[in-house]
Amino acid sequence: MAADCGPITQIAWVSTDIDATERLLSGFGAGAWTRLPDTAFGPGMCRYRGEPADFTAHISLSYLADMQLELIQPVTGTSIYTEFLDRSGPGLHHVCFEPPDFDIAIEEAAATGLPVIQDGNIGGTMRFAYIDGAASGVPYIEIAEIGEDMRRFYRYVKDHAQ
User: Pfam family of this protein, just one (predicted)?
Assistant: First the structure.
């Protein structure tokens, strides 16, 4: 990809036991966790492999210094997270980049043979797209566009983590 993809702002794991993963990462310095249980991703906000998605997941967020940590435990439905568990078991799932231009980053990824596997728009507060990087050693890459309301929430999570 030739686009400026910006910095890596998040590292995420998919887990079958979010409590255990929180405890493990807290032992390495992660701050307090903000849990979002049963987060719903419905057909109006998310697509998986080009089709409307309908799944729920427990999400937990924390920070280690300026790096956001995300934990995802699938609860219902089929998604990129259940696909990952089926393919690899629990583990490191993605790194997230925040490019200056979301649309250009997605176009350039597709032009280099990296199509979007799952994408969504969370009520105008955030757009995200996952591309498959497994062949190059990173299970998935998330490209994100973060709006001001989501930034405020992330500041809350970071303050709570400290």
Answer: Glyoxalase_4
